[in-house]
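A favour, since you know our structure tokens better than I do. Go ahead and set the record down below.
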Amino acid sequence: MKGGAGGGLRSILHPGPVEASRLRVVSCRVRPLRLALEPASGETILATLSRGFAQAGYAAGYVSLQDTAMARMNYVIPAASPDDSHAAWYSATHEGGPGSRISRAGLHLGQRDGAPFLHCHGIWTPAGAAEAMGHLLPFEAELAGPVEVDALAISGAQLVTRLDAETNFALFAPEPAPPAPGEAERERAGSARGLLLTIRPNVDVCAMISEACEAAGFGAASVHGIGSLVGADYEDGTSVSSYATEVLVRSGSWRRGQGTCLDIALVGLDGAISTGILQKGCNPVCVTFELLVTEAA
């Protein structure tokens, strides 16, 4: 990592060729849903969520988990890469058994190899352990029982996992998708214009969100998602030095003439959690940022 106060924007060196475009955006429609999830015995959270979305007529969306009891909840946090094939890597698996609880998490539901897949960052308390934060393992996590969750269903776009040459990771990227059945008729009642977007490394996350919203002609928007940063600088003057982090957007907004405001939670290489509002213009993406932006009044 280099840069920082007085030295320009921090950056991280990835192993592959740098792609010219740092922002990928696909327009979509977004509809808020309240999903009632009923997990089968031993069923992964991925299977439960994808079934819930399918029953509502959707294949993609963003979900907010709040105070959610888990039967199983394995996760990882950022770690140094063991070789030069990646700029950063993941820790050994941290295990959370029955009695674990997610305080707050955000996840994108998309596709990998033609099947549903999800990417989730959150804050949780593993059974018998202290509060922690990280990246939930979708095939090693199970809900403890029925739960209702707030979701934003997406029509006309979806995140699809592709190998990214620059970072050498398999990453979500937005792609056009067929509209959900009946979506054209439903547009007049309850759906909004949206942008499904990803941001590449070493550019300021707030600036890229503002660029996407300006280009779409929005006047205001809400911002939902997860990602990673090369350290962090907050508006209150505090900072995080970890060169690899996992980030959850707790709340986000954009307004013409005011720019982007992101209130985040973050975990770094040492496992410490920090929270705050990002200072504009000095918080570069580490590996990726995956965001759903919804037009607001």
